[in-house]
Design a protein that fits this description.
The chain has about 280 residues and is α/β, with parallel strands linked by helices. It has 8 helices and 10 strands.
Length: about 280
């Protein structure tokens, strides 16, 4: 068996961490290493949970607490610490299906001659105990499908749904610390632009917890989400990630999100401002 590392990064969201770790330990293909990075949380809960698990048999469990540098910076830090070639960036509020690792390692083995850099799976999106299924593209994907990233039946753009092969990742490609939203997309797109391939499997191997306290998933943080979407799309335009039609479509989506959000808040002036931006795109 090939050894696998799991990267967990935490910032003030240790509420789900213990369940997440227990879930990882129940994998049919157990990881050899867990690297847990606390990105400068204001409490000490992550260390307490680590202390409970640190003597697990047959798994190297390492903990680091660093100054707050953001989710991308914390993941970059962890990536330097892992020992093994196969790894996953996982979120502490998400949960792995029992065969999350096994299903992906089977693909790496089966298609070893295809130079696959990452294998992803479908997702269960959970919000207030309601589950919605999101199905991605099955089979090989490359730079020709970049426009589809993140869409239903497209290439997955969410890092925790992937298992990666580290030796194939160029040393100059790390997560962009300047982007808090769509940094996953940005990382995967840059890998694809280097002519790497990814592979989608038809298994719902991950449950994504869309809770209201999430920094990047909560409507409460809509301005933060919008500002970082704009940063990503500005970079996408500069680096020619998408076709012109697709770039315009994603810009329109960002504006429509602000229109709806401001309308719900009865902030009609801001809603109209974004409606104007939507019209001229």
């Amino acid at each position: 068996m090939k050894n696998v590392s799991i990267i967990l990064t935490v910032y003030n969201n240790s509420k789900y961490l213990e369940k997440c770790i227990n879930n990882i330990l129940k994998q049919s293909y157990p990881p050899k290493e867990i690297v847990l990075v606390d990105d400068g949380s204001t409490d000490n809960e992550t260390k307490k949970i680590y202390t409970h698990f640190k003597f697990i048999k047959n798994i190297n469990f390492n903990y680091y607490k660093i100054e707050n540098i953001g989710p991308s910076g914390a993941r970059n830090f962890a990536l330097k610490k892992i020992k093994y070639n196969y790894f996953c960036f996982f979120d502490p509020d998400d949960y792995m299906g029992k065969n999350f690792i096994k299903n992906k390692m089977n693909i790496f083995q089966k298609y070893s001659q295809k130079n696959i850099i990452g294998v992803y799976s479908n997702e269960k999106l959970k919000k207030q105990n309601v589950i919605k299924l999101k199905k991605y593209k099955k089979g090989l994907g490359d730079f020709k499908q970049i426009d589809s990233i993140g869409y239903e039946n497209g290439i997955s753009g969410r890092l925790p749904s992937y298992l990666f092969f580290k030796p194939s990742i160029p040393h100059n490609i790390i997560l962009d610390k300047k982007i808090l939203i769509n940094e996953d997309f940005d990382f995967i797109i840059r890998l694809l632009l280097k002519k790497n391939k990814v592979f989608g499997i038809n298994n719902f191997d991950i449950t994504v917890n869309l809770h209201n306290n999430s920094l990047t998933r909560s409507i409460k943080n809509i301005n933060l989400i919008y500002d970082n979407q704009k940063k990503f799309l500005t970079k996408a335009n500069r680096e020619k990630y998408f076709s012109n039609k697709e770039l315009a479509k994603r810009r329109k989506y960002a504006e429509s999100l602000m229109i709806r959000s401001n309308f719900r808040k009865l902030n009609f002036i801001n809603s109209l401002k974004h409606f104007y931006k939507y019209l001229i795109l």
